[in-house]
Write a structure and sequence with these properties.
- The structure holds two protein chains of two kinds.
- Chain A is 87% helix and 0% strand.
- By secondary structure, chain A is mainly alpha-helical.
- By secondary structure, chain B is mostly helical.
- In chain B, helix 1 runs antiparallel to helix 3 and helix 3 runs antiparallel to helix 4.
- The longest helix of chain B has 29 residues.
- Chain B starts with 8 loop residues before the first helix and ends in an 8-residue tail after the last helix.
- Classes of the chains: A mainly alpha, B mainly alpha.
- Chains A and B meet through helix 1, helix 2 and helix 3 of A and helix 1, helix 3 and helix 4 of B.
Chain lengths: 93, 113
């Protein structure tokens, strides 16, 4: 009974996280400005990392945690680079 | 999901509730990112996913792996610590960039430095 609840809960959580990633992708495509797209990319990688953690719970493998840690590191570096580009770059719309 | 069948029932219920809470907070944050109208309103929304959503999902992972392997598995907490440290930095940089761009475009409405 409780294990059935856990299986359903993990599947529902993964569906919710996919919907969250879809929301971020829609905001990234729509814009309307560059900072909105960078913010949406930030939300997208956080949601992808949460999805990796839930896959790790579902498959019982700790390896997904390392992948999530790498995504968090590289996503932070990417967002900082984009912000510095928006701050000092030549492209002003 | 045979490996989850060895968990005690209360651990299974606890992990399920934590996973649902984390995913629900992350979804709420992304929905706010999609639905709010202004950049300065939108910039608050995804932090819900990167603080509370990450907290609950990390807690679920710690409880699940600790119960599965019979010893405390704590290195998942690194993800939570790292995101908690980096989220304010990225958002401060991003909002400073957005303010700079707004000032360059129309400097009349924006507050001075």
């Amino acid at each position: 009974m409780s294990h059935g609840f856990l299986a359903v809960a993990v599947v529902v959580a993964q569906f919710l996280l996919l919907l969250a990633m879809a929301c971020a992708i829609i905001r990234m495509v729509r814009g309307p400005r560059a900072q909105d797209r960078v913010l949406a990319l930030d939300a997208l990688y956080v949601n992808a990392m949460l999805l990796l953690l839930s896959i790790g719970i579902r498959t019982g493998s700790v390896l997904y945690v390392e992948a999530g840690l790498i995504i968090a590191l590289l996503g932070f570096a990417g967002t900082v680079a984009f912000s510095k580009f928006l701050l000092r770059g030549e492209v002003i719309e | 999901m045979n490996h989850l069948a060895g968990l005690p029932p209360w651990v299974a219920v606890l992990v399920g509730v934590l996973v649902l809470l984390g995913a629900g907070f992350a979804f709420t944050g992304s929905l706010g990112l999609l639905r709010l109208h202004d950049f300065y309103k939108r910039v608050h929304a995804p932090t819900l996913g990167s603080t509370l959503g990450t907290f609950f999902m990390v807690a679920a992972s710690v409880v699940c792996f600790s119960a599965m392997q019979g010893r405390p598995v704590l290195h998942v907490i690194l993800i939570g610590v790292f995101l908690t440290l980096t989220t304010p930095i990225t958002l401060m940089l991003l909002v400073r960039a957005a303010l700079y761009r707004h000032r360059v475009e129309d400097g009349q409405q924006m507050p001075p430095r």
